Amino acid sequence: MRKTIFILMITLLPSLLFSQGIHKTNIILGGGANFPIGGEDAYRNISFAEYYKGSYNLDIQIEYTAAKETVFGFEINHGKFAGTKSVYTYYPTEPGRLNITSFMGFLKVQDNSAKKDDIQFFVKGAVGLSFIADDNFQFSLVDSKGYGTGGISYQGGAGVNFMLNSGNKIMFESFYRTNSGKDASYNSITFNTGFSFCLNP
């Protein structure tokens, strides 16, 4: 019996993940601009929107179309915010630069019956972990001045896909994100575009 179940699992699982129909897997590579709109850093007593200005972000997503209107996925987003004022009193001539990297799972609602040349609208919500560091981004997530922290990331937004052939898409999205670290919160709005590659057209 166990052998039969195992055979069924290894036989059916690939077909569920990579079947024709709506069960598709896409990888999205994108990027765009992000802008601070609120939040406070109580540890350093600064305002996020006052001390930082907009800059770029890079994004990679993998998503699985699970049902007619449901998509699940995972996203890694790295955003940089350029400094407008010094955030270190002992570096008065050097504005700090803030790096926020988020690792999130998301749920997207859209019409998955859309075909080539259709416009596919979607709404999206995500939650995960965020890592925050000033100036030079390092894998240790702590910069040369010793400031680094982690926290929770929440995201909500909407977008549109322009359907191409073989399940590929051109994506545009905008979302609001809150990154909450220890004694701090960083709120921003992001505008992204990207290309979605279908792995099983």
Descriptive report:
This protein is 10% helix and 60% strand. It has 201 residues and is mainly beta. Mean pLDDT is 80; it is low at 5-21 and 136-146.
Defining traits:
201 residues; mainly beta; 8-stranded antiparallel beta barrel
Report the mean per-residue pLDDT as an integer: 80
Shape: elongated
Please mark out the parts with pLDDT under 50 across 5 or more consecutive residues, or reply none: 5-21, 136-146
Regarding quaternary structure, what we see is single chain
Give the strand content.
over 45%
User: What percent of residues adopt helix (DSSP H or I)?
Assistant: 10-25%
SSE order and pairing:
Blueprint: H1 2-18, E1 25-38, E2 40-41, E3 46-47, H2 48-51, E4 52-53, E5 55-67, E6 70-83, E7 98-110, E8 119-134, E9 148-163, E10 169-181, E11 184-198
Antiparallel strand pairs: 1-5, 1-11, 2-3, 4-6, 5-6, 6-7, 7-8, 8-9, 9-10, 10-11
Question: How would you summarize what this structure contains?
Answer:
By secondary structure, the protein is mainly beta.
